[in-house]
Design brief:
The protein is α/β, with parallel strands linked by helices. The protein contains 15 helices and 27 strands. A hairpin with a 2-residue loop joins strand 25 and strand 26.
Amino acid sequence: MVNGALLVAGTTSDAGKSVVTAGICRWLARRGVRVAPFKAQNMSLNSYVTAQGAEIGRAQAMQAQAAGIEPAADMNPILLKPGSDRRSQVVLMGTPVADVDAMEYGALKDLLRTTALEALGRLRKQYDVVVCEGAGSPAEINLRPGDIANMGLARAAGLPVIVVGDIDRGGVFAAFYGTVALLDADDQAHISGFVVNKFRGARELLEPGLDMIEQLTGREVYGVLPWLDGLWLDVEDSLALDGRRVPTRAPHGRQTLRVAVVRLPRISNFTDLDALAAEPGVVVRFVTDPVEFDDADLVVLPGSRATVRDLAWLRQSGLAGAIAEREGPLLGICGGFQMLGREIVDAVESGEGRVEGLGRLPVRVEFGQDKRLARPEGTAYGQPVRAYEIHHGRASVEGGEPFLDGCRVGNVWGTTWHGALENDGFRRAFLADVAERAGRDFVPAPGTDFARLREERLDALGDLVERHLDTDALLRLIQHGPPHVPTLPR
């Protein structure tokens, strides 16, 4: 199998493209195939720093792990990080290059298209198979002229496309048919078939619909993936926050530990909390109402792509007052840490200049043009910690006890390090301290291994693909490209 490739598209955002891509990567890797993930253009506030210091989408880092390889900038050459409804930071090959609105972004299209195709070309020379993930839906026809992530990529690189639909949302057959029918004939030629995702119920009740969609479109349904709880690691869209994060195992002690995470409008790297949610007896919920702090043992102020704007939102929502008055444990990560300081000076991200912080930590933050992208290491609670940093704000700590690169004052901790809670020894020690300070009879489970848990979930994705998809048909697509398929009327 040489230089094969496949594009996984979706009927909507959060249809399951990322997990299906990861599952195919894990399935192929277990067969001994040298496989790599690729997403030409990703819009996400969940990102990761590679060993080479490049910033890419967190989902692509997870997919690289599924493939058994190190993440690299080529796997996500274009990353868009929205800072408002109209402007986004453009990260090109792992480095921020511009902050643009929609019209300014259009002027970069030729450069971005060339960069994406060159990155894909390098991966195809290095690996046997590249599994590409689309963005949003290929049926976003208003965006088709400048598309470089869906059918624009498929056409340019000759890729077969499978379309994933989320049946749990309803309307999956209409979404499949409509996705194909909205495309022009040349685009339709690359749509090879469909995958039904998140199915719960009796398969025999679904079969007539599967037969009919195949007859109506002339395209195969490659399989039906059942609903499987717990596959929320490293998602890229905040839509996935709804209704997730519940404990899967009983607490090790007599009580649970309740964590309230502030759901900021521009929340970033909320994957930092995945390790807490995986801990037995820890209940993590995302909140927007100060009332929900009342029974929380720990409040987390997470990262933000727009620190000053989200700080203003905290004040408008009443959450700022609740945070300022909180006596119990409080943790700020990256943007959240910056908000907890005394002062923020920002002429870069928001242009607001000097802004008063929440005053919970003796810290002054000043934003610089250069973004810090790093993979730091340190210790806390006597435990080793490996993490990563992604921020423009530089924090000057003027007091308190050292805590990673930040500080701690009483029940308030702050750090710019993402991923610190994935370190098992540190996480257990931190949670034990939080539980004692909150007066909870909670004991962290000594055997929780987050890295192993992530591997188990990636294996579960590989199992889903192997057991529920027509893998022989997928191999034919990867090896031979799009099959001959009919054109539907537009």
